[in-house]
Amino acid sequence: MHITYLLATSSNAIYDGKYGQRGRYHTYGQQSFVLDLVATMSRAGHTVRLVVDALSAFALTSTFRGMDGVTLTEEADPSAKTDLILVDEVHDEMLMGFDAHVPAFRIVHHAGRRSSDYLVSRCERFLCMTENALALQREYLPAEQAVLVHQGVDLERFPAVLDKGRPARPRVLLYCRLDSGREALLGRIVENIDREEFLVYVAGDGPGFWDFSDRFGSEIVLINHVPCQSIPNLLGEMDVVISLGRGAMEAMATGIPTLCAGHRYAGPITADNIGDLMRYNLTGVGSDRDPSLVMTDIREALAGDRHVVRALAEERLSADAFMETVSDLYARAAG
Prior knowledge:
33% of the residues lie in helices and 18% in strands. The chain is α/β, with parallel strands linked by helices.
């Protein structure tokens, strides 16, 4: 297929304009999603035209310019061959120039955010990545317009690290933004980790950053941000990861035993609970596990089998599966 992917980068709209960094924006889940999906489409042989509204504000410009089959541009060029338009966070005007007969699918990152009336009328499908998003989008969309397509990560960008020996002082990474009310829970988790037995890394920016620095700074490795291009290198050094959303998915793809913590603490992600946790994007919503059990959970995780973790990621968290579903939906729309 010839796919045009539309993405507004100038205002970081999905995060309400937050997380600026010297003219660009931090690469959190949305940009990691775009990077993994476009790379997956490229490997599958699709031709991708990635249209952004401000190249200078886009932190992944150099990454995409070196990718086979991908054109990165600020020019939408509706005259270029396009079979399918994928609509990320955009200004309506970015889509308006395209012929109405070209199918457009809206990618829903924010579960409860309502799209403009124009996007509702123009996009054949709204791709909801969790059951929660599906239910919320169907509150204002026709049931058949909103569809469930679980997101995934690029299993090649996150190669499995399966035979890593256990060091004398295992490394535990807490990988989560320190905002949105999560700071208190994450602070309780760090409080309950033996920071002499384990070398604790915390990667996350937000209002909680300086509180973590004041409370734990001399006992942990505290990092405010790691670009998504660098995350595979960081994860490869870890023995256990505590995270949510795409951070948890990326860790599991690497084969690292992963504990779910975000809005609530859910403990180890396993084949038995991943389905329920994915309903709310692996954020722990609906869980009630006591954070004081984190040491028990870390020790259990260290005794686990990394091959099992990677296999679960391959089964449930693959960007290839996401793209295959999108291709099937396109085939039906194109008729």
